What does this fold into?
Amino acid sequence: MHGILTQKREADSHVWLAQVHIFGVGFPSIVTKGVLVVGEKIVEEKPLTLVEVSELLSERKNEKELTYEQDLTLKYAKKFVKLTLKQFEKIKEELSKIEKLDEYAIVKIIDVLPKTKEILQLVLPKNIELDNETAERVLDVTKKYAK
It folds into this structure.
């Protein structure tokens, strides 16, 4: 499964943005690392779109030098991002109104912006099956933003 996921980890009562994982062939699995110590636990996990990754790493680049992996990820995100931040916020809001879609599915739909039902089904996790009407609603939204 391809995707981007952030995790916050708690260690010694501090919460860190610990890791951004990229799942996919030929790409680094750990993009950013925080301070990880014995006894840590994951306190939050959130999928990210390429738009969000690009924004997050661009902000971090302004604060300090990026690691090699972070720099690769930023270049990757900028190369393949299809939306502006404003467009991302609008499409996420529209897709969130569709009941059968969870946060992970919405993120994948936003990253790929499928134009056909076949591509949409390939993007979605296997546990999510959309009826024709719902699939058409999703495709109507994505077609508005696809370039």
The longest helix spans residues 50-63. Residues 9-38 have pLDDT under 50 and may be disordered. The longest strand covers residues 14-23.
